[in-house]
Design brief:
Helix content: 25-40%
CATH superfamily: Zn peptidases
CATH architecture: 3-Layer(aba) Sandwich
Distance between the termini: 55 Å
Largest sheet: 6 strands, mixed
Structural class: alpha/beta
Strand order of the largest sheet: 1-2-4-3-5-8
Number of helices: 8
Length: 332
């Protein structure tokens, strides 16, 4: 057991060394990893270093994958929920679990028990900002789906954000949400997708909490070593533009230059109930800038990820909070 612990620490140290070498080698090259070729140019002095630990986030993803497949109805899904709750409690936070039953078109999973996990962290402003992402995996027949990026990277970043905010009071109250059931169980339709975020949006409306939120930010598939955030057209423009401006200010002006188009994700149910929301997602997850070949395949593994990408997205979200909490003050 002790040998295994030492081995794991050695492996994580190795990831850190590789990440540092990768960033150094990218400078001046034509293929700029994660848009970091001009990283931090023009950023304010106190904003130069990300408060998120990307190497630790990779370790979280490894932990989650080790729990086994985590799609709906699996033991691994419940183990993942318990892992998330345990980590949040370790940070000194008080997570809340919201169990519900999802009705699906899957012939063997017509009624599936799911659960969202949330944690509220007090802040200095009045209105809250919701930061969420999904933790569930995808059912793929005959495929050992790890979901390192898809579901893994979002869960790791959210836990990193929770740990940071537990030690540093955010500029506004923050609700961090871990969504179950984002993935379709059969085929993506409006009825077979986004089970957790739809359930949460319904509860917010029923409990008359909608007006208490200034904005929502959803993160999904943000660990790609060649990170480019999609210009997602279902997102509330001012929320997305706030995040993009923050990225440019921090020294990542090209990061939000991904392809333009609509992507149905966990931000949509919140927009539908009146909470401005945006999704940060990279749907070109593959061996090239225009490839999505790793998505929903056995190749969605940890070795395709970059600690720096996770750090960068977390940094952008944290630095955007003051403006997001103020809401849409002017035409943006």
């Amino acid at each position: 057991m002790q040998c295994a612990v030492y081995l794991r620490l050695f492996l994580r140290l190795g990831i850190a060394i590789v990440a540092v070498l990768g960033v150094c080698c990218c400078k001046g090259s034509t293929e700029v990893r994660s848009g970091h070729g001009t990283a931090n140019r023009g950023a304010r002095p106190n904003e130069r270093a990300s408060p998120i630990d990307g190497v630790r986030a990779i370790g979280i993803i490894e932990d989650i994958i080790a729990l086994g497949p985590r799609h709906a109805g699996t033991v691994g899904a419940e183990k993942t929920r318990q892992y998330i709750i345990g980590q949040l409690r370790r940070f000194g936070l008080d997570p809340q679990r919201d169990d519900f039953t999802a009705f699906t078109p899957h012939p063997e999973l017509k009624q599936v028990k799911m659960a969202n996990i949330t944690v509220d962290i007090p802040g200095k402003a009045n209105k809250k900002v919701l930061i969420g992402g999904h933790f569930d995996g995808k059912i793929l027949d005959g495929v050992d789906f790890k979901g390192a990026n898809d579901g893994g990277s979002s869960t790791a970043l959210l836990l990193e954000l929770a740990q940071y905010f537990a030690a540093h009071t955010p500029p506004c109250p923050v609700r961090i949400a871990f969504f179950d059931g984002e993935e379709a169980l059969v085929r993506w339709t409006d009825a077979d997708s986004l089970y957790g975020s739809k359930h949460m949006a319904t509860r917010l409306k029923q409990d008359q909490e909608v007006d208490g939120f200034a904005a929502a930010v959803v993160v999904d598939m943000i660990g790609d070593a060649r990170l480019r955030i999609q210009q997602e057209t279902l997102s509330t423009p001012w929320v997305f533009n706030t995040l993009a401006r923050t990225a440019a200010r921090l020294g990542f002006p090209d990061l939000f230059n991904g392809s333009r188009g609509a992507i149905a994700d966990d931000h949509v149910p919140f927009i539908q109930i009146g909470i401005p929301a945006a999704v940060l997602i990279d749907m070109n997850f593959g061996p090239g800038w225009q490839s999505n070949a790793y998505w929903h395949t056995e190749r969605d593994t940890v070795d395709k990820l970059s600690p720096k990408s996770i750090e960068t997205v977390g940094h952008i979200v944290i630095a955007s909070l003051p403006e997001l909490a103020r809401g849409q003050m002017t035409e943006r």
